[in-house]
Design brief:
- Among the domains are: 282 residues, Alpha-Beta Barrel (TIM Barrel), CATH 3.20.20.80; 77 residues, Immunoglobulin-like; 87 residues, Immunoglobulin-like (Sandwich).
- Helices cover 19% and strands 28% of the residues.
- It contains 14 helices and 37 strands.
- It has an 8-stranded parallel beta barrel with strand order 4-5-6-9-10-11-12-13, surrounded by 5 helices. Strands 30, 31, 34, 35 and 36 form a 5-stranded antiparallel β-sheet that branches.
- The longest helix is centred in the first third of the chain and has 17 residues.
- The relative contact order is 0.11.
Length: 658
């Protein structure tokens, strides 16, 4: 009954014997584990690539470390773990991600944090060490949670009483602005005040946080809004903030036996009026946002000529830059700069960024509209294009590069005295690779790691067949591939009423099978589409995979909840009457990815009953002042965490967090 119904791409990238005309290339694979020692990953964060596991929980990351290593990422960047503002339990990413960037203090959260605790972070770091993967943590140092633009959130006093009681933040300067040096580094951001980072008390608090992270095993730091913190080069606005915390953390790490601590700072758009990136780059790496944007726009607008000059921004050397195709700011901020750009174009931009010599590349793991805080979301970070450019980056990290644009193709030649590689990206689309000029690649046959096709280099020209991705990563290596499988929907959120169709993506498998609901194991190769169902009305659909490359085996298990109960009302029991009091209780109800609506109901003796619109998936409860008849978030008294509507429509209100 349960059969695959369509195979839309079919290939196995094993290539034990490759034939091209009368030439034959034998690839003698060397069996390797997923370690730095094997050469699969690199040891130094700067020389590798970073997976930005944005909003993932510590346990989610730990569960996926093997997949992350197989994908060639040598490090993982996690979201801030400082005490979280307005913790209401697990919520949708769109409603809550910003809370991590308005922390309450300079310590690692031990409770009430949507992505984990200090203990879970320590466990993650220990397991990551086993894979040779480094952990980078995002740190907020410029500000804490605000009450207003020039006052701190009252809860800050519980974590930073000295900062709170002494009002160690700037006032009277106005909002941040790139057109004023003072406002760049002392202006407030949105609704939270700018800390007096020149003050020793603030510096000591930040340094203590870095030391605490080092103690649990963190290997590096990304500094949010680093652009808005003064440097020693800022003239009358200068301070020793950065030398104090960076040198202090480095020395502390070295005393603990940890070397090569990694630092990079977020600098968006420009460094600001009368300032230079060079103010920062003698202390840390920085984001080259302008170059990253230039690469992405050349892809999106099909303007390959823009890629002929990929110089770094003034004041940034190649080994001081972090490049990306997109960041959480371009994806999730109100500008939605990259939100609607296709994954195919994002991956092309990432391939170009990660092909570069010396620069560190970061891949942002996108959520989808249903993703909750803590969940993985999408799995494009495991795609064959991303995985193979990561491994190419690791393989050629210290090799020379030569960039050119020919006939609508971006070409990056990487080479040293022994090895040669070429990255091709088709910017215009559906073009043939025929005798494109290359100047530094020895004559011979080379394998495209994406398609498995042979590319020939002869007399300074390269020819071959590029696949539909428009990306070719061409070089010969003897790494033994590891099998990969991932799905378009992992069943982590939402229920189904009948069947669900998912896409399955796999590569690097010498053999593979799947089974549905514990049934027959069905062999497959490449990418397939599956229709999942269950004969029961209310059941759990299971999907299991086994894949091998020679002796290396990968197993995956997914579950999908099938519910045939139609819910038209929700009953929330066991509400605390002392919380409700004389307030007006209203539900906010919404469908995933859609706008919500206010829904009135009936409250009596600790139970609240309300009707729900058809298609609704989630609700939360809100209290308004007595006699309120028009509901507005600005006048709310309290609200609960987000709740997924239960399959039977009954929810235990004692578990709600107000």
């Amino acid at each position: 009954m349960f059969k695959k119904i369509m195979i839309f791409i079919c290939f196995i990238i094993t290539i034990p014997l490759i034939s091209c005309g009368e030439k034959t290339t034998i690839i003698d694979y060397v069996e390797q584990d997923l370690s730095v020692e094997s050469g699969y990953l690199v040891d130094n964060i700067q020389e590798g690539t970073i997976l930005h596991a944005w909003n993932w929980s510590m346990t989610t990351i730990e569960e996926k470390l093997e997949d992350i290593a197989i994908a060639g990422f040598s490090s993982v960047q996690i979201s801030p773990m400082q005490p979280q503002k307005d913790y209401y339990g697990v919520a949708s990413w769109g409603s809550s991600w910003w809370k991590f960037y308005q922390p309450l203090g300079f310590s690692i959260a031990t409770e009430e944090h949507a992505i984990g605790t200090k203990t879970q972070l320590e466990s993650l770091c220990e397991t990551a060490d086993e894979y040779g993967i480094k952990i980078i943590v995002d740190v907020v140092v410029n500000h804490l949670a605000g009450g207003t633009s020039e006052s701190l959130n009252p809860d800050v006093i519980n974590f930073e009483p000295e900062i709170y009681n002494n009002s160690l933040f700037h006032t009277g300067i106005g909002a941040v602005s790139d057109y004023s040096q003072e406002q760049v580094i002392k202006g407030y951001m949105a609704g939270f005040p700018d800390l007096q980072t020149e003050n020793q008390t603030v510096q000591d608090a930040v340094l203590d946080l870095l030391k605490e992270y080092i103690d649990v095993g963190v290997d590096g730091f990304r500094f949010d809004a680093a652009k808005h913190v003064e440097t020693p080069s800022d003239g009358e606005y200068a301070s020793d903030f950065w030398p104090t915390i960076l040198d202090g953390a480095t020395q502390y790490a070295e005393n603990s036996g940890k070397t090569d601590l990694f630092f990079y700072g977020e600098i968006l758009n420009t460094a600001g009026e009368n300032r230079s990136y060079a103010y920062y780059t003698d202390m840390m790496l920085v984001t080259d946002n302008e170059l990253s944007k230039k690469i992405r726009n050349a892809i999106v607008y099909k303007m390959p000529e823009r890629l002929s000059d990929l110089s770094y921004s003034d004041g940034i050397l190649s080994n001081q830059a972090v490049l990306w195709a997109e960041s959480h700011d371009t994806y999730a901020n109100s500008s939605q700069e990259t939100t609607n750009i296709s994954t195919d174009n994002i991956n092309k931009a990432y391939v170009i960024a990660a092909s570069r010599r010396d620069a560190t590349a970061l891949y942002f793991a996108r959520p989808n509209e249903l993703t909750l805080i803590g969940e993985c979301g999408t799995y494009d970070w495991q795609s064959i294009e991303v995985s193979n450019i990561n491994k190419f980056h690791n393989y050629f990290y210290d090799s020379s590069e030569s960039i050119s644009v020919q006939e609508g193709f971006f070409i990056n030649e990487r080479y040293n005295s022994e090895d040669y590689g070429v990255v091709l990206v088709d910017i215009l689309g559906e073009q043939e690779v025929s005798k494109l000029p290359v100047s530094n690649i020895a004559d011979g046959d080379y394998v495209d790691q994406i398609s498995g096709n042979i590319f020939e280099v002869k007399n300074g020209k390269i020819s071959g067949e590029i696949d539909e991705s428009g990306i070719a990563i061409i070089y010969n290596n003897n790494f033994e591939p590891k099998p990969v499988v991932y799905v378009s929907n992992d069943g982590s959120h939402g229920t189904i009423t009948d069947t669900i169709t998912i896409d399955v993506f796999s590569y690097n498998a010498t053999s593979a099978n799947y089974s549905i609901n514990g049934g027959e194991k069905i062999e497959f190769i490449g990418n397939i589409e599956l229709e999942l169902s269950h004969p029961g009305l209310n059941a759990v659909i299971t999907l299991d995979f086994e894949l091998w490359f020679n002796e290396y085996k990968i197993e995956k298990h997914y579950e999908y909840i099938k519910s045939n109960i139609v819910i038209d009302e929700v009953v929330v029991n066991n509400l605390d009457p002392n919380i409700i009091g004389n307030s007006v209780l209203v539900a906010w109800v919404w469908e995933n990815g859609q706008e919500g609506a206010w829904v009135e109901g009936i409250y009596q003796d600790g139970s609240f009953t309300f009707d729900i619109p058809i298609g609704s998936d989630n609700f939360l409860l809100v209290l308004f002042p007595e006699n309120t008849t028009e509901y507005d978030w600005d006048i709310k008294q309290a609200q609960t965490n987000d709740v997924e509507i239960p399959s039977d429509g009954i929810y235990d209100g004692s578990t709600l967090i107000w």
